[in-house]
Amino acid sequence: MTFEQITLDDLDKIRGLQPKDWGDIVPDFEFYIKSTFCTPIKVVVENKIAGIGAFIVFGNTSWLAHIIVHISWRNKGIGSGIVNYFLKKAGDDSIETCSLIATDLGKPVYVKAGFRVVTEYVFLQQAGQWAGRPVSKNVVPFEEKYRAGIYELDKTVSGETRESLLNGYLENSFLYVDNGKVEGYYLPGLKEGLIFADTNKAGLELMNFKYLGTGRAVLPAENTCGIEFLMQNGFLEASRGTRMVFGKDLDWNPTKVYGRIGGNLG
């Protein structure tokens, strides 16, 4: 099995692997191609792309993302081959932790490779009108003086060092600031709209701000405060997804995740 780097010339070709129930995968792979911390790869069989995937690295932690096999080439070991390729790369680069979000279709492949379940994500859909409340005066636009506070909070919650990921989205972010301290932040431009918060008050106020304009939410099951808030405001649970890990457990805090990035980064 041969693995090759995906290039911008491949973007139109990978549309044939688009899963029906996923968002458009092309912008994600364009992001991977252009980001220095990502490695997108393809498996070519009979001059056609049979499988794809991405490896995202933050220092000594990483994510496996968008591992997709063309329907014509499933059950032939291609998915497992991509996973094992990335795990070998992680080992060669002394990366301690590999995380991913598994679909029901992919989960058996990851279990076979040695991944174990960490938690579930709860997918919620708006069923009624968003009641909400006025936006808190503590919710303010980003200012440069808060950058270090955001990085510190992000590392505390995610367990990873992700400045390389966050940098491009901070200027358009919103923060919950109390007495000069960043207690939470919301990045509307980063996929589904990441919200991390150190306190329930900050998290709920940022959620109140975010969900004025969207009808879908995904939170770790451990964040019962955030889930209850959404249900009190017209959301219902629609489904669940599985977060898995390989290697060293990540020291992260799911109770402080009030909105995930997406299926590729948790």
Overview in brief:
With 266 residues, the chain is an alpha+beta fold.
In what range is the share of β-strand residues?
A: 25-35%
Q: Averaged pLDDT, please?
A: 95
Output the strand order for the largest sheet: 1-2-3-4-5-12-6-11
Q: Characterize the overall form.
A: globular
Number of helices: 7
Total E-strand runs = 13
Oligomer: single chain
Give the termini separation: 29 Å
- Rg is 19 Å
The largest sheet is:
8 strands, mixed
Q: Which spans have pLDDT < 50 for at least 5 consecutive residues?
A: none
Order of secondary-structure elements: EHEEEHEHEEHHEEEHEHEE
Share of helix, binned: 25-40%
Query: Which class best fits the helix and strand makeup?
Result: alpha+beta
What does this structure look like?
The chain has 266 residues and is of the alpha+beta class. Helix content is 26%, strand content 33%. The chain contains seven helices and 13 strands. The protein has an eight-stranded mixed sheet with strand order 1-2-3-4-5-12-6-11, sandwiched between helices. It has a five-stranded antiparallel sheet with strand order 7-8-9-10-13, with helices on both faces. A hairpin with a 2-residue loop joins strand 3 and strand 4. Helix 2 crosses helix 3. It is globular. The model has no long low-confidence stretch (mean pLDDT 95).
